[in-house]
Amino acid sequence: MTTLVTLGAVALSVLAGSNVQAKDTYSAPQREALGAVDALFAAMAKHDVDASRRLILPGATFVVVLPDGAVKIEPDTGYLDTLGKHKEAFRERIWDAQVTVQGNLAQVWAPYDFHLDGKLSHCGIDSFSLVRGSDGWRIAGISYTVQKAGCAPSPLGSLR
């Protein structure tokens, strides 16, 4: 079993109590795609660049829509460099995910909140594009909005 599949299996085993709300209505492929997203969040929380690299396709892009409407595009290498340099505690959570899977392509769209050192930093919408290969689901791109004010309370409750 590859490392990526193992990470996905671990993520699926903790899915219900972690960053992503599990729903009985998700199909197995949808749960697997969500597992890859959850594994990325777990790697981010640990600042684990190697695990993140295994979950992100080389050349993936990160598109950020800032509060003023400006758009920032960053390559996967920029994300990985930032992840390795920062030491603050990161915690990102999504809920009510809409997951679409067609063959080896998946899209996950969900509201999120992001906590920095245990405090809410911002919220918004995450949109993940995923591709399934022989080594499992991998992130092909992430787009997200950043909202600094007016974040509604998460249905996941406060951080513990």
Polypeptide structure, described:
By secondary structure, the chain is α+β, with helices and mostly antiparallel strands. Helices cover 29% and strands 39% of the residues. The longest helix has 18 residues, at 28-45. It is globular. The N and C termini lie far apart (33 Å). Residues 1-19 have low confidence and may be disordered.
How is the secondary structure organized here?
Layout (H helix, E strand, L loop, with lengths): L2 H12 L13 H18 L3 H7 E10 L5 E5 H10 L4 E5 L3 E5 L2 E12 L2 E15 L2 E10 L15
Series of H and E elements: HHHEEHEEEEE
Count of individual helical segments: 4
| N→C terminal distance | 33 Å
Examine the secondary-structure arrangement and name the CATH architecture: Roll
Let me know the largest β-sheet.
7 strands, mixed
How confident is the prediction overall: mean pLDDT? 87
Tally the structural domains: 1
Helix content: 25-40%
* Rg, Å, rounded: 15 Å
Would you tell me which CATH topology applies?
Nuclear Transport Factor 2, Chain: A
What is the number of beta strands? Answer: 7
Overall CATH class:
Alpha Beta
Report the portion of residues in β strands.
Answer: 35-45%
The secondary structure category is: alpha+beta
What form results from the Cα inertia axes? globular
Question: Summarize this, please?
Answer:
With 160 residues, this protein is α+β, with helices and mostly antiparallel strands. The chain has helices spanning 3-14, 28-45, 49-55, 76-85; strands at residues 56-65, 71-75, 90-94, 98-102, 105-116, 119-133, 136-145. The protein has one domain: Nuclear Transport Factor 2, Chain: A (Roll).
